[in-house]
Design goal:
With about 220 residues, the chain is α/β, with parallel strands linked by helices. It contains seven helices and eleven strands. The strands form three sheets. A five-stranded parallel beta sheet has the order 5-4-3-10-11, with helices on one face. A four-stranded mixed beta sheet has the order 6-9-7-8. The protein is globular. The two termini are about 15 Å apart.
């Protein structure tokens, strides 16, 4: 299988060069941060509706900037924060042609239950990412944000399936994938940043999820 990187090294994921997706596909991108290069690339290549979820204030601001610039056909100045510091981030974004009506942003996060949760900042306040997972051992400073589970979101958006799911949610990815499979939703592609595993926490949960995915015939095309 021939694969390629969609988006930047910081915010992108590897997928097959030839995607089994089209304009009727449903794409959920959970976790935007200040890098939506993956989301934009998929929207451009497939012309599918892309649903982006992130309650982080800087993520919301960044999305609004990028969408406005596409609509007004202007390119914003680069910012060293964007794309994890990728100096070519803005160019990579705006090399794409998209229909902004296909982009849908929701300022809440996805978890395995509905409610208002503490969203902890990183110790370095320059970093945009937040987490609701206390075991990540980030700063004790937090904001309060709304979270919804997949069942609630699917009902609200009147979706019965997800064709591609991206999860970059800082430590609670296993819980969301568990609910996904409990709902008997099996996306063609699942792109996950396993932050908890990288932090050496929730290792048993990670092993269980990988085992379950393999039992469902998911294949790992890039592990990094």
């Amino acid at each position: 299988m021939s694969i390629q990187l969609y988006g930047t090294e910081y915010g992108g994921f590897y997928l097959p060069k030839k995607l089994d997706l089209n304009e009727e596909s449903i794409i959920y991108c959970v976790g935007a941060s200040e890098d939506i290069s993956f989301d934009i690339k998929l929207c451009s290549q497939t012309n599918a509706n892309v649903y982006i979820f992130d309650p982080t204030p800087r993520a919301i601001e960044h999305y609004q900037l990028i969408k406005s610039c596409f609509e007004n056909k202007i390119k914003p100045e680069n910012n060293k924060r964007y794309g994890g510091g990728d100096i070519n981030y803005i160019d990579k974004i705006f090399e794409n042609q998209i229909d902004t009506n296909k982009l849908h942003y929701y300022n809440f996060g996805i978890y395995n239950e509905d409610g208002i949760f503490k969203f902890y900042q990183q110790t370095n306040k320059e970093h945009v990412s937040h987490t609701i997972e206390e075991k990540m051992n980030w700063s004790k400073d937090y904001i309060s944000v709304k979270m919804k589970n997949l069942k609630t979101i699917l009902n609200e958006l009147n979706h019965t399936t997800i064709d591609l799911l991206k999860l970059d949610i800082e430590g609670v990815e296993c819980e969301v994938i568990e609910e996904l499979f409990d709902l008997k939703i099996y996306p063609k592609y699942i792109c996950v940043d396993f932050d908890a595993k990288r932090k050496n926490i929730k290792l048993k949960e990670f092993e269980n999820i990988i085992s379950k995915m393999q039992s469902l015939n998911y294949k790992i095309i890039k592990n990094y």
